[in-house]
Amino acid sequence: MNSVTAIIADDEPLLRFHLDKMLAETWPELTIVEACENGESALEAIKVLQPNVVFLDIQMPGMSGVDVANQLVALEKKNQLTAPLIVFVTAFDQYAISAFEANAIDYVLKPVQEERLLETCQRVKQRLASSDTDGTMQTLMAKIEHLSVGGTTNYTKWIKATKHDEIHILAVDDIVYAKAEDKYITLIASVEGGYQEYILRSSIKELIRQLDPDRFWQIHRSTLINVERLDKVKKDITGKMYVYIADNKLPVSRAMQSLFR
Questions:
Q1: Which residues carry this modification: 4-aspartylphosphate (predicted)?
Q2: For residue 251, is the peptide bond before it cis, meaning its omega torsion is within 30 degrees of 0?
Q3: How far apart are CA 82 and CA 15, in angstroms?
Q4: pLDDT tens digits for range 16-43
Q5: Which residues make beta-bridge pairs with 190?
Q6: Rounded Cα gap, residues 24 and 18, in angstroms
């Protein structure tokens, strides 16, 4: 096989560094041509450098890994590039991982384990060595779309978030609302009779994909609420609408007011 090139895309510098080091050990012949900190820079690097493989974090602020993959599909359909093989670096729960495996879509679960990375690299090598690579991106994205809009049994039940230096596993049922702030999401969860704040490194768009839309409504560009936890909805004298939830008053954008009619 000729020299194989790859791009790493992850918004966390430490994860980019460790993945680079682990790939050097598990696949010494692989050349990392770029390490990108977000989806936008990853997409541009892929266009210019045309790597064989991309190790792509799903959850990045701004343009997510899924957004990047969608863009690559569109460019490939226009014959503007040959899309690389994608290895998703993901914190998705077990249902998504099983779906990826069933459809021969490569993934690495965070935190990255050397044994799993070695197995994934072997899969990628076999795919690259095969002449049957046509439609790889279309097949991959068809499955991602299924995960994004699939039935209620496909929605995640647990969210990994941090509080100070600790990692917490939150039941989705306990999440009251989520508010995007810069590169993070603040989750308000009901815990032991009160409310606690947790931090999730994700975009609001990516979080929406994982949650049941019948239960979690986006009331503003940056705000998502669990309607089962809603106390009341009121309009002020100017016609501006607010929801009252978890002892907080949150604005509803005009575009989203129709949800409550």
A1: 57
A2: no
A3: 27
A4: 999 999 999 999 999 999 999 999 999 9
A5: 195
A6: 10
